[in-house]
């Protein structure tokens, strides 16, 4: 019997709005790196999201919120990549995370992050906060896919906005593949649950 190739949907979300961002470089490089077995979908437009207001979290939702939630809903797993600002998450990225709460698409979704900080403190505060917020959203944090892969600005090609260093590319690829595996396992367990445990 021919082997069945399974394609995973991976959402890649950058927490930076900066031109030439190292975090966005991780996302763009992964889109290029992950081969035929992954459908990567990047979300780089957090600056287009309105300020979160519970009063606006009703139908009809703002179009950009619909787009963000749709990407998360379609994904088998979500990978975040964010800088640290003033010891915490950037406000615009926290705003994005706040919009994920009411939608529920992220509940039980395997999530991870690549911490691209090359600062001595390793953006610890931001990633501690990211863990806290993702806990509140109900996402399933895949510990093995929460890694630090420092990306110095010099490792980003200014033309393409992608990472050129082979070792860094290998590091981010490995983390993404760990998360993809978790996403596919979850897809199987949801399907088995829907089948009533049949089809072993
Ligand atoms: C307003 C501001 C505050 C920052 N605060 C921190 C910080 O608390 N800790 C840190 O490690 N880096 C801090 N940085 C540095 C950024 O995290 C760093 O430039 C990072 O590369 C930005 O990510 P990006 O390249 O994806 O935009 C700060 C930068 C700015 C502009």
Automatic annotation (TrEMBL):
This is NADPH-dependent FMN reductase-like domain-containing protein. InterPro entries: Flavoprotein-like_sf (IPR029039), FMN_Rdtase-like_dom (IPR005025), NAD(P)H-dep_reductase (IPR050712). SUPFAM superfamilies: Flavoproteins. Residues 10-145 form the NADPH-dependent FMN reductase-like domain. The lineage of its organism: Bacteria, Bacillati, Actinomycetota, Actinomycetes, Kitasatosporales. PANTHER family: CHROMATE REDUCTASE (PTHR30543), NAD(P)H-DEPENDENT FMN REDUCTASE LOT6 (PTHR30543:SF21). Coiled coil: none annotated.
């Amino acid at each position: 019997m021919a082997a069945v190739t399974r394609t995973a949907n991976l959402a890649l979300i950058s927490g930076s709005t900066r031109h030439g961002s190292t975090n966005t470089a991780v996302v763009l490089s992964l889109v290029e790196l992950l081969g035929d077995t992954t459908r990567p979908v990047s979300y780089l437009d957090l600056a287009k999201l309105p300020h979160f207001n519970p009063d606006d979290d009703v139908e009809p939702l703002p179009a950009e919120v619909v787009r963000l939630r749709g990407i998360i809903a379609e994904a088998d797993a979500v990978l975040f990549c964010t800088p640290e600002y003033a010891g915490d998450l950037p406000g615009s990225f926290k705003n994005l995370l706040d919009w994920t709460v009411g939608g529920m698409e992220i509940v039980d979704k395997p999530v991870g992050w690549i911490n691209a900080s090359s600062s001595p403190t390793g953006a610890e505060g931001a990633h501690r906060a990211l863990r806290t917020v993702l806990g509140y959203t109900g996402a399933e944090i895949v510990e093995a896919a929460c890694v630090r892969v420092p990306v110095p600005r010099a490792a980003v090609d200014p033309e393409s906005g992608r990472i050129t260093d082979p070792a860094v590319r290998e590091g981010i690829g490995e983390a993404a593949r760990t998360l993809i595996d978790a996403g596919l396992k979850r897809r199987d367990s949801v399907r088995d649950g829907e089948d009533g445990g049949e089809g072993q």
